[in-house]
């Protein structure tokens, strides 16, 4: 009887662990999907992809970058999720990202750009959602004003707007 009690306790522990693991998976989006991340990711929600609506991106934690850009007049406050945080949320394992816009334009971003002081996936400018006309709904924004290293043609070329999908490449 003693061994049976231990077996039941072990099974209950395993069930509890399985429930906790399932609770930590990425939920399915409830609103329109703004971003799909695929390939070389450990956390998915739709097939082998991780799909995010606006609320899911916001839930990852908001970061703001106040900067000017070469595409917009004046200084603006961009709000979004750190690229580093997004990649961590999906368990990305790769050396580079292929970031693709709604019109299929694609740029390559090294995974090393994803740092705590690096780019964000912006979903708001000056507190307002960005329309497609305003380079939205998602735009990769680097902290251009923070450091001259972010004011280069290479960095500008990685600043893709109307972003809607990312592929993690080994």
UniProtKB/TrEMBL annotation:
Domain of life of the native organism: Bacteria
Record domain Oxidoreductase molybdopterin-binding: where: 70-143
Swiss-Prot/TrEMBL keywords: Signal
Pfam family, one: Oxidored_molyb
Coiled coil: none
Origin species: Ponticoccus alexandrii
UniProt name for this protein: Molybdopterin-dependent oxidoreductase
Signal peptide region: 1-22
Keyword Signal on entry: yes
InterPro entries: OxRdtase_Mopterin-bd_dom (IPR000572), OxRdtase_Mopterin-bd_sf (IPR036374)
């Amino acid at each position: 009887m003693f061994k049976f009690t231990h077996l039941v306790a072990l099974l209950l522990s395993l069930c509890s662990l399985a429930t906790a693991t399932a609770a930590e998976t990425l939920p399915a989006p409830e609103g329109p999907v703004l971003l799909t991340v695929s390939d070389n990711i450990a956390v998915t929600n739709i097939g082998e992809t991780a799909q995010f609506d606006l609320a899911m991106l916001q839930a990852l934690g908001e970061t703001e970058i106040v900067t000017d850009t070469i595409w917009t007049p004046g200084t603006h406050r961009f709000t979004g999720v750190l690229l580093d945080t997004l990649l961590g949320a999906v368990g990305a394992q790769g050396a580079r990202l292929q970031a693709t816009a709604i019109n299929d334009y694609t740029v390559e971003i090294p995974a090393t750009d994803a740092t705590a002081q690096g780019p964000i996936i912006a979903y708001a400018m000056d507190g307002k959602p960005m329309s497609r006309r305003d380079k939205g709904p998602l735009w990769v924004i680097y902290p251009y004003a923070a450091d001259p290293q972010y004011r280069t043609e290479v960095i500008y070329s990685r600043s893709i707007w109307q972003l809607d999908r990312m592929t993690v490449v080994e």
